Amino acid sequence: MSARKLVAALGACALLATGCGGSAPMGAGGAAAGRDEGPVKIGALHPVSGSNAVDGLQMRRGAQLAVDAINAAGGIKSLGGRKVELVTGDTQGKADIGQSEAQRLISAGAVSLVGTYQSAVSTNVAVVAERNRVPFVMDVTASDAIFAHGYRYSFRVQPGSKAIATAAAQYLKAVSDQAGKPVRKVAFLHEQSDFGSGAADAFNAAAKQLGIAIGPNISYDATTVSDLTAQVTQVKASGADVLAVAGYYRDSLLAAKAIASVKPDLNAVWGVSNGAYDQPKFVADAAALGNLYFSANYHYDATNPETVALREKYQKQYGDPMRTGAVLSYDAVQVIAHGVEQAASTDPEKVRDAIAAAQVAPLTVGRGPIQFAPNGDNRNAFPVLMQVRDGRVQQVYPPEKAESRPDYRVAWRP
Amino acid sequence: MTELDTGAPVVPETAPPDRKAKVDQGFLRRAGIVAAILVVAVVVALLQSGSGLVVWQSVVTGILTGGLYGLIAMGLTLIFGVLDIVNFAHGAFLAVAMFLSFGMVQATGLHPYLTLVVAVPVLFLLGAAVHRGLLSGAGGRSLENQLLITLGLSLLLENGLQMFFGAEPKTITLPGDFQFSLLGAVVAGSRLYAFLGAVVLGGLLFWLLRRTRLGTAIRAVAANAPGAALVGINVRRMHTLTFAIGTACAGAAAVLAGPLVTVTPTLGDQFNITAFVVVVLGGMGNVAGALVGGLLIGLVEQLTTIYLGGQSSLLGVFVVFVLVLFLRPQGLFGRRA
Q1: Which tens digits make up the pLDDT trace of A365-386?
Q2: Are B67 and B291 in contact (CB under 8 A)?
Q3: How far is the C-alpha of B295 from the C-alpha of B62, rounded, in Å?
Q4: Strand ranges (DSSP E) for A132-210?
Q5: ipTM of predicted complex
Q6: Alpha carbon A100 to chain centroid distance?
Q7: pLDDT band at A29 (very low <50, low <70, confident <90, very high)
């Protein structure tokens, strides 16, 4: 009977893991219902515990730095210099917890929300924002699906999954042509959830239009995978000349290890929205393995002196290099504060309209100011191509945002 | 209470010879069926992928990662077999030991494998303390009790690790790691060591349980605790010792697996489910079965990747899990309860 017992236990565990998705009490109208005095509250929702805590904490700090900067510059001037305050919630990376935390922050009087890092969590928070009529400005959220619902209160700063994957394919074509080794066939290795398969689908569609052959398309389970050697062997056997990888940090590092041992006959390794290949940490962890890896993704603008100054400040204050996610949170809070300033009110409805009409200069790479399309997506969001060079991640393409020229080679072949 | 099964066909000393032969036959028949299914699976994979090298690499990788799964499942199955505790904190123990190993390598520049000398005893003591302090009343009691205690403990350990070490992923590098080609398939030295470590650890546990007085006492407690108490065995002490040994196994597994994985506080989640499936497959409480079960799950995972073009490899694992539960709930090599 022990097997039955174990199954019961596993079932119970699964139930616990998916969480007690109880509905949170409906908030009482947020700021509009209460007295309107004291600091203007902005609600920040990030995963500061759990497996994505590093990025979550980075982003919460990024948002805090923006709040500090606004207060240092005299607060919200149209409201007589009222200070801004960040009220924070921990989503733990779980959609249901994000939802109840969003409700809590709105009840606490948050005039707008910023977050959340994971698309699944943002999807739920967007629903809460919509129901409560409170604007929600997403810093990091790759999934494009949220913007298909016609939501009025959802906005996004980062370029979406499709925009990044499409740019990744175009950059690949341009850079490989420039190097005199035009890309022929791309194998795609990706994690199997919405994030990875969405990136692969969008990349493959764009690549096909550019006349690039695709295949094989290999997916894996990021939560359990412990070796990718067989998958990379499959890539080697396929004769592809470029391997595109869309994964999270841990599994993308595993892929790099597998590539270094199998040594497939590639011209380039091409990260697409990759969670590792543009991280300073990857350069240290992978060392020689990761040299010359490319990565097409959103990025802090390394060519903007203001961004450089912000990152220096962060480094000094927290002893850790500031990641792009945190810079996006900084941008998102700037957008909200700008909205409150323009609205000269903390009424979420008025703030929403001001955000929808806002134009704010970003510290992340953009084609222009942050400016939202009718569906809430940032129309000037702009992915950039990076490469691991000389022990550091550098922007290499397009030329106007490049720190150095792309070097279209792989490290394990002369 | 589940009986502890060390993998050999266990027969009472007084059993008539024909019964022994029958048990052996059943064991061999099952092993034969499993081997035949595997051969068919490999041939189908070969037909599907059309590349011998890809299939061969999958088989080699499957065996090597399977050894890792077996290594991690061994302590789990021991604890389940003797104490009847479904230990959800096993993955967290693994993470604790890995951070211990990582911390020592960072601080002293020791060879990672040398940290075994510290990690195994520390985890042994941790296991003993956890059992004495938290679990000694829960063995054999209601399932929810131990489930909540071990789940809570795992949350506590994971968050404690995150507090002390931060959530930043860490890597342990093995100095002088090498790789070689085995008939075209790539084999990393660190993976081979982990595999050999699994075999050695399995052998050690087997020897401990079958050939030592302590092992006999543990098996006696597993088989019939009141009876063991009647002949003067301190049941509570045996339980604590077993839990400590099982946890020490997690310590050994962590040191050997350290260079292969990215070390994070939540690392245990990655292995917990697979380890439980391995435990069921190998026969709950069966140490040698855990190793064989690990190898099978490793192979199933890799072959699923070929069949389904890399849909969740867990899909294949769970298909096997469900089939085993239906056809042979006591596991491939376990005895009927």
Answers
A1: 998 999 999 999 999 999 999 9
A2: yes
A3: 7
A4: 136-138, 154-156, 185-191
A5: 0.81
A6: 22
A7: very low
Nearest to A303 by CA among A172, A168, A394: A394
Q: Looking at CA atoms only, how far is residue A261 from chain B in angstroms?
A: 7
**B284–A233 C-beta distance less than 8 A:** no
Provide the strand spans (E) within A282-383.
294-297
Least confident of A125-139, A224-238, A324-338, B315-329: B315-329
Give Cα B65 to chain centroid, integer Å. Answer: 12
Write out chain B residues lying below 8 Å of A13, CB-based.
88, 147, 151
Question: Distances in Å between the alpha carbon of B182 and those of A228, B1, B35?
Answer: 17, 44, 22
Residue window 194-253, chain B: list those with CB within 8 Å of chain A.
Answer: none
Closest C-alpha among B74, B89, B135, B131 to residue B294 = B74
Sign of the alpha-carbon torsion through B176, B181, B186, B187: negative
Residue A147, pLDDT > 70, answer yes
Whether pLDDT at A184 is above 80:
yes
What's at A401, amino acid-wise?
Answer: K
> What angle (nearest 5°) sits at the alpha carbon of residue A309, between those of residues A307 and A314?
95
Distance between CA A152 and CA A255 in Å, rounded? 40
Q: pLDDT, tens digit, for every residue of A355-368?
A: 999 999 999 999 89
User: Which residue reads 């070490």 in tokens?
Assistant: B165
In total, chain A counts a number of residues equal to 414
Angle, helix B235-257 to helix B213-223, in steps of 10 degrees: 110
Contact B292, B332 (CB under 8 A): yes
| Average pLDDT for B315-333 | 83
Q: What is the pLDDT of residues B174-187, one digit of tens each?
A: 888 888 888 888 99
B276–A216: do the CB atoms touch at under 8 Å? no
Phi-psi region of A347 (alpha: psi -120 to 50; beta: other; left: phi over 0): beta
CA angle B73, B298, A51 (to 5 degrees): 65
Comparing CA positions, the residue from B197, B172, B196, B195 lying closest to residue B101 is: B172
Interchain CB contact of A18 with B (< 8 Å): no
Q: How far apart are CA A216 and CA B134, in angstroms?
A: 51
Where helices occur in A264-304 by DSSP H, the ranges are 280-286
The reported pLDDT for the residue numbered A37 is 77
Please tell me the number of Cα atoms within 13 Å of A156 on its side-chain side: 32
Task: Give the ranges where chain B is alpha helix by DSSP (H).
Answer: 17-49, 52-83, 90-108, 116-130, 143-165, 189-211, 213-223, 225-230, 235-257, 267-282, 287-307, 313-327
B-proximal residues of A, 175-234, CB under 8 Å: 192, 216-221, 223-227, 229-231, 233-234
Using DSSP, how many helices (H) and how many strands (E) does chain A show? 12, 12
Q: Out of A54, A220, A221, whose CB is closest to B167?
A: A54
Q: What SS3 class is residue A362?
A: coil
d(CA B293, CA B328): 14
> Would you say A134 and A105 are in contact if contact means Cβ atoms under 8 Å apart?
no
**Smallest CA–CA separation between B186 and chain A, in Å?**
6
- Please state the separation of Cα B155 from the chain's center in Å: 21
Residue A267 has pLDDT above 60, yes or no: yes
Q: Is A83 an interface residue toward B (CB < 8 Å)?
A: no
Q: What is the pLDDT of residues B102-136, one digit of tens each?
A: 999 999 988 999 999 999 999 999 999 999 988 87
pLDDT at B27 (0 to 100): 76
pLDDT at B168: 82
Place of tokens 């997506």: A377
| Prediction pTM value | 0.83
d(CA A30, CA B84): 51
